[in-house]
């Protein structure tokens, strides 16, 4: 554990604001996580300087912005948490450029208000703009890789700053070359948008039906944003401090993609357990994608599992979200995640993969 005094001296010229023994539960949407020293950087220059100084000193760094996709252990973090608090957003005629710490939904809202389309299906997703290319964030038939024009990166090994093109980022389903790698820090992201104010083509059936549209049609971006926010709120997927169903990391497991060769075995296992039912599945580049939420519920884990007295439960609105009911620890959430993951694998032979980044815990 590095001393607060040493960190203060090291970062004194970087412009970072230092705080000692900060409960990391304050910085994450799951609201769990033990203490750490936090260096908050409100400018890109401060962020680059702080990360560079800590790296040069060999001090472990944890980058946190919105904290919406993090599960941090109860023991906290032994290095320094660098809080990315850069918030500048610049809107052009057909694009938006946002710094990494800018609140994602605020960026989406600003583009829609400016009469631009393309990001509206990604409304209501908590977290920061800088996290979107890392996760290849997606919802309602749209992923950010479809709109990203370029990403500004800090190379931590060399200190170089450059713009990276989408082709360099290895985008896949909820992943990129930036995920589970500490080689680069996202400083800013530029998105290409539709100047006509129309939405991206509607590819998600539930959303298209809500807008009385055929799949593939477009609608005004403002109408699509409003519909997405209604749908997300109905599933407890829009942050609300008073609603413990939103004390989560969003979808905790990714939808599993299995090889075509395994599809029939899985369908047979489902039929053996739940009978002859229609199983939602979708073509994917590497095989077949199943619905994690559907598998969880059919494996016997209903909304609200394991019950009203549990400190960590599945959302009462959406089985794919693991929630903190107010007093949960990281250990409670890990135990619940393992129970659900192992139960789905035991029933159907599909192993679910957690979506959040874990620090100090293993699911």
UniProtKB/TrEMBL annotation:
It comes from Nocardia aurantia. It catalyses: UDP-N-acetyl-alpha-D-muramate + NADP(+) = UDP-N-acetyl-3-O-(1-carboxyvinyl)-alpha-D-glucosamine + NADPH + H(+). This is UDP-N-acetylenolpyruvoylglucosamine reductase. It is an enzyme of class 1 (oxidoreductase). The keyword Flavoprotein applies. The lineage of its organism: Bacteria, Bacillati, Actinomycetota, Actinomycetes, Mycobacteriales. Pathway: Cell wall biogenesis; peptidoglycan biosynthesis. Gene3D superfamilies: 3.30.465.10, UDP-N-acetylenolpyruvoylglucosamine reductase, C-terminal domain, Uridine Diphospho-n-acetylenolpyruvylglucosamine Reductase, domain 2. Keywords: Cell cycle, Cell division, Cell shape, Cell wall biogenesis/degradation, Cytoplasm, FAD, Flavoprotein, NADP, Oxidoreductase, Peptidoglycan synthesis. Its EC number is 1.3.1.98. Cell wall formation. It is found in: Cytoplasm. One of its GO terms (biological process) is cell division. Its cofactor is FAD. PANTHER family: UDP-N-ACETYLENOLPYRUVOYLGLUCOSAMINE REDUCTASE (PTHR21071:SF4).
